[in-house]
Amino acid sequence: MEDYCSMPNRHSFTPRSCWDWCCLCSAYLVPLFLLLLILGLAVTFNVYFILLCVWYHNDWRIAVSLICLIIGDACAAVLLWAFYAVVNTSAGYVLDESWRYPPIYIGDSTVYQPPRSENNDNNNNTTTSMNGNENSVHSPPMSMDVDNNNNNNNNNNNNHINNSINDGTSCSVNIEGGNPNTVRMLDRNNKLRYCEICRQYKPDRAYHCEVCERCTYNFDHHCPVMNNCIGRDNYKMFLLFLLYVPLAGFVDGGLELLAVFVIEKGDVSMAWMMVGIVTCMMGLSTLFFGLAHLWWLCHGQSTMSRHIAARVRVRRVNGNRTVMRDERQSEEERREEVRRHWDAVLGTDRRWWRVILPFPPTRDGCEE
């Protein structure tokens, strides 16, 4: 049953009635207000410089006004492009059926606990659900088909568990179910991360969004302003939007103030000056937020990863203090993790013009 207390979006919610359509439309009121604000300031900018061209059509001021108009419209255009891309691009939900089965663990944990079949867990398995998040204590049951395969192929599976793969790291081969994906992250109980709500295993850096009710690749956060989940497939556009807002705000507002004091003759127009100041203030609204996300991206971090790191920087296992994985990584491992994060959210094609423009990230065909 759908949760009508949340804000549905078009990527995770399918309206089936008139009430559903009303809920879906009302959820986009905040993005619509933001869009109208951007369009209003952009139109005001155009009106002012067009008026300057009309007033000073036989003066050098018309050339300067036209140049300012082109620069300002270019900034507004990429801002609107990024806004459209964030709202209309899905975050990248984990919908692959293969994640119903355990993936292959290739991490370096020496206390990793491989998943066990339902037959082995019936007598002693306890499940504690905590909204499908990282803190869930769970040893998920396998489907009946998987159990039958395990009974027939038990010896073969046991021979493969904890074998090494090409890079020499320890891994366990998944129980027969068709999940060729690999993971390096475990939950706090040293087991494969599992979502109780979606009934599937989680890829690395994937977390469950309680608003979208989906597990999301490289989940960052759910943005109510955009009414969309921010994850692997739209994080780049979200970051660019945060950076384009101050760019467009400072450029357009600065050009308006420059025109008021330099281009326009006579007394200073207070109305147009206030429009320029408001435009600059809008640019300031997301400046530090965008710079923070840019810093996190450069270090391979996200809002969710920093939130978890702050909560579980040091954990206790059997009464002993255990340093989290991020604190015991070598520099080479850390660089490799940052590279994987960039490949996921920026794509493997990182030519400069694809990075600075809100094109969707392209990858080399490898899902993870």
Automatic annotation (TrEMBL):
Write out the transmembrane intervals.
21-50, 62-87, 238-263, 269-297
GO annotation terms (biological process): protein targeting to membrane
Q: Does the keyword DNA damage apply?
A: no
Low complexity bias spans:
120-136, 148-161
Q: Which residues form the Palmitoyltransferase DHHC domain?
A: 189-304
Topological category with respect to the lipid bilayer: Multi-pass membrane protein
Q: Where is the protein situated, by its record's location annotation? A: Membrane
Q: What is this protein called?
A: Palmitoyltransferase
